[in-house]
Amino acid sequence: xSFNNTATEPQAITAARFxxxxxxxxxxxxxxxxxxxxxxxxxxYIAAGARDGRIVHTKQFGKTKPPTxxxxxxxxxxxxxxxWHEMVRSGTAVARMTGSLILQDANGKTKAHYRMADAWxxxxxxxxxxxxxxxxxxxxxTFVCGSIxxxxxxxxxx
Length: 158
Hints:
This protein is mainly β and 158 residues long. The protein is built from one helix and eight strands; from the N terminus they run ββββαββββ. It has one helix at residues 80-89, and strands spanning 17-22, 28-30, 32-48, 55-74, 97-104, 110-127, 138-144, 147-150. It starts with 16 loop residues before the first strand and ends in an 8-residue tail after the last strand.
């Protein structure tokens, strides 16, 4: 196997803003992506060898956890995600939506695109409040997804 160092090698992605859009809702813009988390728990498997009876310990794929995406933004008066979260809290079945998470540079050019299926806002936290202060009030939203996929070369929205 050979490795060449060419100018076309992948480079680290930088993003100035993060946009999400779900099932026809208008886009929501965030200033911080706290994280995209997807996990498969390892499970220990212990067996005895058939011929020699030696104990063999291995790690196998275990239970998968639903992917999560956590974003933060300044509160801007748009209550659509809050209303969506209220649908989730009331158990409304149609609260699961499909959407896109777009990482954009300062010029609005797409740097990465993730597709989230069966997503819903599981947690909203509003903070950074202090009487008499001039800091921006921050809203942190965590989305739980049925699945999340990196879209290769894709930059389209719903």
